[in-house]
Amino acid sequence: MIEVRDLWVDLGDFVLRGANLDISAGEYFVILGPTGAGKTVLLESMAGLYPLKRGRIWLGGREVTGLQPEKRGISIVYQDQMLFPHLTVRDNITFGLKIRKDSPAEMEATLAWLSELLGIDHLLDRKPDTLSGGEKQKIALARALSVRPRLLLLDEPLSALDPNSREVLQRELKRLHEQYRVTTVHVTHDFEEAIALADRVAVIGDGAIQQIGTPEQIFRQPGSEFVARFAMVRNIFLGEVRSDESEGALFEVDGVRLAVVTEHHGRCHASLRPEDIIVSHAPFPSSARNSFAGTITGVSDKGSTLLLTINVPPDFVCLVTRNSFEAMELSVGRQVYITFKASAVNIF
Amino acid sequence: MLKEWVRSNKLTLTFILLGAVIFLFIIVPLFRMIFASDPDILRETLFDPEVTKAILLTLYTALIATGVGFVLGVPLAYLLARHEFRGKRIVEGLIDVPIVVPHTAAGIALLFVFGRNFLAGRAFDAVGIHFVDSTAGIVVAMLFVSVPFLIDSAKEGFKKVDVRLEKVARTLGASPWQTFFKISFPLAWRSILSGNIMMWARGISEFGAVIILAYHPMIAPTLIYERFETYGLTYSRPVAVLLILISLIIFVVLRTLVKGGRKGD
After folding, report:
1. In a domain, B92, yes or no
2. ipTM of the assembly?
3. CATH, residue B213
């Protein structure tokens, strides 16, 4: 669908060197990288909004390298929305349709479709500055989708939002993509956002693409120290959230049920920081709702701390200090208990 | 209590005193002139055909200059707001030169280009436009000294329009022209409009450059000067008062319009 070959982008103090990407039709592709890694510029160069130093881009088999942005059929949504402040929401959404001279009937149909899709019917006559961040982002999405782009570019679309709207919009993005399968390239610095949404992830840093793979590949087998640093949260599980009348939300993975706090349902990821897990010899009575028996299957020495791999199953990675490790006489093969609070588990 | 307040607001008090001095310095001469005028003489002046003609000519030529400045200056302002190039600072500095040179000197400089025996003067002469002692000369003089205000204001206006708004418009199918006219220009409109008003005001008040290039036909500032030179204070004052009043009314109205529009956003 979209092919990027040997792309060089010059940002003055930073150069992205020889980027290659192959993104298939209908894919949700996430580019993950630290702030200042040139992610925005990478998107803008795909859209033809930023001059290339070198490289070629194909879209649907046609080379678009030298093509004007208005002829590419690529829409972009920025982190801070960039709604046209002098136009109403309706005129923002229909901007591209008016440019290409859609008939009023066609325009109404598109508007109705998008209003329904994103639940923005009541906002159409408002001006952008009266909207909340989440609402603005929905309008920006509607505007980008209105022209039925072949490729949708999302530049940190969730980063400027408060945690609540962020969660809502993330779910919305996922649902939208499952429904319409618009080929999407989404850049973010947020690891969990990448894993929650992506079919595939490309990690960029130090001026190059470090690794490309499915989310599972990225966090199970980080290909470099750089990627591993990004995957700081060591415990990431893919499972199912169920609500239980008596016990609240439960996250089920490999037959184990973790008590969690979440509004999500169905297939989700859960993450748990290694330092949030308490290791003990005996079951540990406390307010923490999760306690499991397991066997130590690996020890990785980090100096003053150690990372233990404890098989329940699944495998949990737990952080202990050297002092505790020695005092508790822990070693591979020992049976231990792990305990953590339901609120320490992040569902996404 | 008061003592306490004075002590904790020394800076504000000092600044109020200093500010009041300069404020009075500005308004006292204007108000004294307006209120010391005999209403009868003022009415008489108002119906003096020479005066009306001069005032209308002033407003008209300044308007033409503003129009020319708008058509030629706004594109330049946009270029300066959007592009980086070698020597940009120099270009920006040169644009502001007319503001800082003595306006009589500006007039002489213009004469060297638009005089009948010089470059542009000869070219325009061929199509029947003359600049010396003509309306066209007045326009040229006003344009020269006042267009920097428009260019600077428009440039600031364009700079405030996030370039990504234009980028979004492009991805939605708009050509560079459509993007300019539907996004950049409307969003910078307030600054452009206030630049236009500034430019027109500056044009109306221009004297130095105009008398060098075109003493005749007489614009109001020239008429005031001539009456002052020939007949003295008594006869020049009513004309001055009229010009001040008219300018004041126009700018109060225009400023209210600009402000009112902003509130409606």
Report:
1. yes
2. 0.82
3. 1.10.3720.10
